[in-house]
Amino acid sequence: MILWDVIEEHLDEAAFLWLQWERALVSPRYVLNEVMNGPEERLLAHLQGLHECGAPAVERLLLPALEEEPGRICAAALTLLADGAREQVDMLLGRLDADGTVYQACIQRVLELAGSEALTSCLRALLEEGKAPALALAYVMGALSVRTRDIPGLALGSFLSSEEPLLRASALRAAGRWGRSLPAALLRSALDAPSSDVREAALEVGLLQGERAAWDVCWHFVSSRLPGCRLALRLLAMGGAQQDVERLARLLEIPELREDVLRALAASGRPEAVEACLPLLREKKVAHLAGEVFSATTGVVLEGALVREPSEEGEEEEAPILPPVSEECAILWAERELPQPEPDAVEAAWKDVRKRLASGKRYLGGQPLAAEHFLSTLKLAPMRRRGDLALEVAIRSKGQWRVDTRGFTLLQCKQLEGMSPTSLSHLMRHFGELATR
Question: Among candidates 123, 4, 137, 20, which has minimal Cα distance to 74?
């Protein structure tokens, strides 16, 4: 006897917990162990329950769920891919063109996370065959660049020259993550591409390879206000010299860039960035982001008297939210959890903390930047801050160390094991100085 109400509850709970887990991965309120022992543990339990239901659940529940909201799409797809069967992979990829952008984003995400080595082998075979549509190959390439350290013998040339921007961008990211050396001319061409996906991928792989052109174009992307300049802002904040951060702070005067500049400055660790953000503590729309710059730099937790209580009139008006399938949408969801700072109290706290922070130096949680502290923070910091730290570790270690901060926590813990401070010996050098070619 099949207890359909129990199976349906597994699907409902997995769908709900998937969205909670995605938010938790970039939340200011969670740390790694809390995600592992909270929403992730419960999510995996319900997914296992769905998987154990076997074939009867596929036709009745899982396939119809692929046409519903994102949480149910992802829960169903994760279950369907648990065994890495080629039939299920082909079925899910075959629906990409017909089922719209939400479905595409869900499948792209699930391919990175689902199944085991059997699914990795299946995806690898698809990529080596190269017969699937370009969009499907882009998702397969992107997933494999996260799932495996390399695919020896796989030539990337045809993918790097693809007319499909997502496939070209996926191939660039794979080259960076797999330590493949790319010609400087190819990278420069990608940095000039009309697609923001291609440009951002080229920025990342260029810095991993020490390509000077990648660093040089960061300011071009920002000053031209090209779509997709958010990565350039983050790179300039975390890897820029003192004058770069001061220049970024001046961009706070541009309303359309203000929010992205604040998100970037939270990774800068510069006292000067905090001072530039203090006036914005009184600007309702971005006060929470300005408070995060203060907290991330100084290590002072915004709580108690440092936090402004919401008004009874419902002052905290909430903007519409898209489902947290992409990293960008997940971050916007999680930003609602940032506290609203009390301006006078934070300014008073800053006057006290500022005495201990030297101008021109970089800090992380109130401590001078050093390799051991950096790696410890990557393990223990609020989830929101770990994405920038992981990107910086990858660049400074020339790709030797990678942490997928949006992956399952067990994998993250394995990736964190054995990280050595010696691999970050150039921590205080800005990215332009790390460029060698």
Answer: 20
Find all residues with CB under 8 Å of 378, minimum gap 6, and list them: 386, 389, 390, 393, 403, 416, 419
Buried b (16+ CB within 10 A) or exposed e, 41-79: ebbbebbebbeebeeebbeebbeebbeeebbbbbbbbbb
Strand partners, 368: 363
- What pLDDT score does 313 carry? 47
Question: Percent helix, strand and coil across the chain, each rounded to 5?
Answer: 65, 0, 35
Lowest-pLDDT range of 91-105, 121-135, 358-372, 404-418: 91-105
Let me know: does 406 contact 181? Beta carbons within 8 Å: no
Can you tell me the distance from the alpha carbon of 275 to that of 350, in angstroms, rounded to the nearest whole number?
A: 9
Mean pLDDT on 76-100: 89
Residue 280 in contact with residue 251, Cβ under 8 Å? no
**Using an 8 Å Cβ cutoff, are 292 and 338 in contact?**
yes
What's the CA gap between 198 and 206, in Å, rounded?
Answer: 12
Query: Between 348 and 336, where is the model more confident?
Result: 348
Partner residues linked to 146 by β-bridges: none
Q: What angle do CA 129, 133, 138 make, to 5 degrees?
A: 85
Alpha helices in 320-422 (DSSP H): 327-335, 343-354, 371-380, 383-396, 409-416
Residue 7 has pLDDT above 50, yes or no: yes
The pTM (predicted TM-score) of the whole model is: 0.91
Query: Tell me: the pLDDT tens digits for 229-283?
Result: 889 999 999 999 899 999 999 999 999 899 999 999 999 999 999 999 999 999 9
DSSP at 168: H
pLDDT for res 15? 94
Task: Name the residue among 162, 164, 140 with its Cα closest to residue 151.
Answer: 140
Q: Is 260 helix (H, G, I), strand (E, B) or coil?
A: helix
At residue 403 the predicted structure's pLDDT band, cuts being 50, 70 and 90, is very high
Domain positions in the chain: 248-307+320-362
- Which residues, 6 or more positions from 73, have their beta carbon under 8 angstroms from its beta carbon? 65, 66, 67, 102, 103, 106, 107
